[in-house]
Specification:
The structure is a homodimer. A six-stranded mixed β-sheet of chain A has the order 3-2-1-4-8-7. Chain A has a six-stranded mixed β-sheet with strand order 6-13-12-11-14-15, sandwiched between helices. The model of chain A has no long low-confidence stretch (mean pLDDT 93). Chain A is α/β, with parallel strands linked by helices. In chain A, α6 packs across α7 and α8 packs across α9. Helix content of chain A is 37%, strand content 23%. Chain A contains nine helices and 15 strands. In chain A, a hairpin with a 4-residue loop joins β11 and β12. Chains A and B meet through β13, α3, α5 and α6 of A and β13, α3, α5 and α6 of B.
C-alpha cells in the first residue's frame, strides 16, 4: 500500500464519507460522519473536515477533493452547476478551490439540466457517474436510487439528460409522518422479499395514474380486510412507490439499467428491477465515488498523483 | 323559525361543526370547534359536546345525531362500517346510540368497500351524499375534495363504489415537511388563478406516471431557472396533485361531476375541473351535511320531528 496522496470526500445532505487514498486509488483509511450539509453552516465545514483529518493523522500538505452538497449554494463554497450536455471527464476542470483554507481543498460541481427537458439538478451523483464511465465503461440508462433517485442517460461518457424521482423522500414522509404511519410496522429494512412488495410494484407499473388511490389502500386494507394485513403494508408502500418510479422513467421488460447503489437499497432496487423484467448491472456506489474522485484528483494535482506512476 | 328539535354534528378528524336545528331543517344556532377526533380520547367526547350544547343553552331532552370520525374505532363509540352496495336512505338505520350518555346521542356509520374493487372506507361523506341524493337528486360521479378526497359513484341513491385520493394530505406533507417546503411561499389560499396551476394540472393529467419527477421540478425549477419562479411553485404543486387525482379517477373532457365542497377548496376544484374540461355541479358541503343529518333525525326520532308537520 502506498502513502497517502490525497483525501476523497463524498459530502452529502445528511452525512459524509471520507477516504485517505494512495496515488493508485487504494484506500489507506476512512471515516464516515453524520455532519452532512444540512447540519452545517458554511463556517463549520472546515472544522468538521480537519477533525476527521486529524483523527486519521493526515498531513496538512495532503490535498482534499470533495463531491456532493458541500458545493451547494447553502453548503461550504458554491461550485456552480455545469450545464448539460456534459462530458463526464471534464467535470473536475470546473472544481472550485476553497479560499483561505488550511490546505488545498477542491469542491466538484453538480450538473444542471436547463434546456433538455424538465429543469433538474444533481450534486454528487455526477462524480459516481464519472467513476462508472471511466472504470466500467458504463453507458445507457443509469439509476442511482435514494432519497432523490437519479435516472441518467449517458452516451459515450456524455450526460445527455436526467430526471429525479422523489421516491425515498416520499416513502419516508408517508411511512413516518402521514396517516399511513400507524399501519407501517418497524423495522423497515429489506421489504422486497414480501410478496406484497411484488404485487404493489406491478400494480403501480400497470396503473401509475392511480397512485393517490393506491397509497390510501395502505390505510384502508387493514381497516377493511383485517389487522393481519398490517404487517404487509410497509412492503406495499415501498413497492407502490418504486413501481411508480420505474413507470415514470419509461422502463419496461427487457431494458438494461445500470444500478449504482449499496446496502439494503441496492438489494431492494435489484429485486424491483427483476420483478419489472429489467436487467440490472449492479455497481457499488462507494467504489464509483472513489473512482470518480481519483480521476478528479489526478486532473487537479497531476504532479503529485502521477509521480508514483512515473517512477 | 321553530324551536330546537335536534342537534346535528359533523365531527371530523381535526374539527367539528354543530348546528341546533328546528324540525324543518332550519338552523337556529351553530358552533364550530377545533376538538376533532384526533385530539380526543373516547371519554372526552361527551364533555366537549355538552360544553357546546350548554353554551347554546340546549335542553338535555334535545337529541343529537352525529356523522364522521366520532364513530371510528378510535373515536367516541364505534359505529361499524356498512358494506357496499348501500342505499343511502338506509344508513341511519345502522346508527349506534351512545350508551350511558346524558342525552339521546346517535352516531351514524361510515361505508366500507370490501369486494367491489380496492378496499376503501369513508366516514362522514356518506351523510353528505345522503343529503345530496335526497335534497338534490344527485347521481353519477361525486367528488368530495379534501385531505382524503372521496370520489363516489351513485346510481339511484345506491353507492356502488368509491375511491379515496390522498391529495390534500400529500400536498400538506410536501408543502410543509419536505425538501420542497423551502420553495413554497405562504400564504397558500386559492392558488388556482396562477397560470402555473393550470400548466401543472395539464402536465399531470397528460403524464401521471411521471409524478415523482414532476414533483421534484418544484425544487429544481427555481434552482435552475432562477428564484423568480419560486412564487409559482405552490400553485404548481397544487396543480400537479389535483391533476393526478383527476387522472386517477379516469375523468376526461365532457364528463359531469358533482362537487360537494366549500370555501377555497371548492373554488380550487371548480377551477381544476374547468381546466380539465369537466363540468362541475357545485353543492355546499355544510348544506348537504345538514340535509343528511336532518333525514337521519327524522328516521331516528319520527314522533319528535314529524310532530310539527302533522299539526
Amino acid at each position: 500500500m502506498g502513502e497517502i496522496a490525497f483525501v476523497a470526500v463524498d459530502w452529502g445532505t445528511t452525512s459524509f464519507r471520507l477516504w485517505a487514498m494512495d496515488a493508485d486509488g487504494g484506500v489507506i483509511s476512512e471515516r464516515h460522519g453524520e455532519r452532512g450539509m444540512s447540519t452545517l453552516k458554511p463556517v463549520d465545514f472546515e472544522a468538521v473536515l480537519e477533525e476527521s483529518l486529524t483523527a486519521l493523522k493526515i498531513h496538512a500538505k495532503v490535498p482534499v477533493v470533495i463531491c456532493g452538497m458541500a458545493g451547494a449554494a447553502q453548503g461550504w463554497v458554491e461550485a456552480p452547476y455545469v450545464d448539460l450536455p456534459t462530458r463526464l471527464e471534464t467535470i473536475p476542470t470546473y472544481a472550485i478551490q476553497v479560499p483561505l483554507a488550511r490546505r488545498d481543498v477542491r469542491i466538484l460541481p453538480g450538473l444542471a439540466q436547463r434546456d433538455a427537458g424538465m429543469p433538474d439538478v444533481m450534486r454528487g451523483e455526477e462524480t459516481l457517474l464519472l467513476g462508472a464511465a471511466l472504470e466500467k465503461g458504463v453507458s445507457g440508462m443509469v439509476c442511482l436510487p435514494g432519497t432523490h433517485s437519479k435516472w441518467v442517460r449517458i452516451e459515450a461518457s456524455i450526460v445527455t439528460g436526467f430526471a429525479t424521482s422523489m421516491t425515498g423522500e416520499i416513502f419516508d414522509l408517508l411511512a413516518h409522518k402521514s396517516t399511513l404511519a400507524h399501519f407501517i410496522c418497524a423495522p423497515l429494512g429489506n421489504l422486497s422479499d414480501n410478496p406484497a412488495f411484488a404485487d404493489a410494484l406491478k400494480e403501480a407499473i400497470h396503473s401509475p395514474e392511480k397512485i393517490l388511490q393506491l397509497l390510501f389502500s395502505v390505510r384502508a386494507t387493514p381497516l377493511v380486510m383485517g389487522a393481519k394485513n398490517a404487517a404487509n403494508m410497509a412492503a406495499r408502500l415501498s413497492g407502490l412507490l418504486i413501481g411508480l418510479e420505474i413507470a415514470g422513467m419509461g422502463q419496461s421488460t427487457g431494458d438494461q439499467v445500470t444500478l449504482i447503489s449499496g446496502g439494503v437499497l441496492a438489494q431492494i432496487y435489484a429485486r424491483a428491477f427483476d420483478i419489472a423484467g429489467i436487467e440490472p448491472r449492479l455497481l457499488s456506489a462507494d467504489e464509483m465515488a472513489r473512482a470518480g474522485l481519483l480521476h478528479a484528483a489526478r486532473l487537479l494535482w497531476p504532479e503529485q498523483l502521477n509521480r508514483k506512476h512515473d517512477t
